[in-house]
Description:
The structure is a single chain. This protein is mostly helical. The chain is built from 20 helices and 4 strands. Strands 1-4-2-3 form a 4-stranded parallel beta sheet, sandwiched between helices. α4 packs parallel to α7, α6 runs antiparallel to α10 and α14 crosses α15.
Amino acid sequence: MAEVYIVGTAHVLKESVEEVSRVIEEVKPDAVAVxxxxxxxxxxxxxxxxxxxxxxxxxxxxxxxxxxxxxxFQRKIGEETGVKPGxxxxxxxxxxxxxxSDVLLxxxxxxxxxxxLWQKMSFFEKLKFGWHILKGFFSKEEVEDVIGNVDSLVExxxxxSPKAGEVLIDERDAYxxxxxxxxxxxxxxxxxxxxxxxxxxxxxxxxxxxxIPPIEKLLEVKKSKFSLSKTFGWIxxxxxxxxxxxxxxxxxxxxxxxxxxxxFLINGTLSALGATLALAHPxxxxxxxxxxxxxxxxxxxxxxxxxxxxxxxxxxxxVEDLISLTNASSLRELWRNKAFxxxxxxxxxxxxSIIGTIYGxxxxxxxxxxxxxxxxxx
Length: 378
């Protein structure tokens, strides 16, 4: 078993950078393991951006915005402490190369981590998590208070979302510990550079390797055809279509047309309002207004995808816009980023459409006097 030296860092503290350099120089390890995956390594070393905005629009826009906002917060703290996010990892890699040590990337792929995060969090946890992130934009809490007590910060994070804490912290602790143990078979001395919030968990797993879950489980991303959200979407669509069919057959075509117009206007107005709040291009707003009624009864497509795609064509964000998404130094700069605005248009249009679907259905039922139980119970 190799000698393992774990350096727990605060990602944006100058002292952490200095400690990483000092420990590697003193220990002179055969290998330096860093809390990076290949994707994050490429982004850090080569500034490689592999995100396709059109692909993002087809996927989870909210999850992408979450990653961008989290990166923004970390960078802002770094600016206040005079250290760029990831500088301690760059220092570890540089020092390893200087003394001829191997560099090991021991973290789980960030894409897998965020996909598992989204799949495991409940709907209310996502709302709570998003709310705390939004509050962070307006928080005046001192940087020292935020990063001074890592254990308290980790526990606070778990209170916000236990499942998020499990995916972002516990699972990665186990995954990195597994890779450290595997590396120990080939090296005599290893210096491990990880965030301070991971140190205690990794040490625990190294003392008790039997507690590490099967590695296949930690890499699993469910691709089941069954999706609770999609199932709910299909059920809601069936109820909406069934309601209009009931109106048409029982109350006549005039009432059906009137109900449809209410449905169309409410959905369209709230979806367009979401796009407007993001200061979307007028054509994107118009598309959001016109397509919302249809996307509301088709779970395979979202209004935000359509308006976001139009916004993408109108704004034409460049590769530089994509790369600078996580490099914005102010909220104004982030707001002015064309790629961010496309994502924001898609997200806010979707939110407007969701509200419009629920409120529109309520208005139609109230207007026609239909008892929904009659549709559900023959």
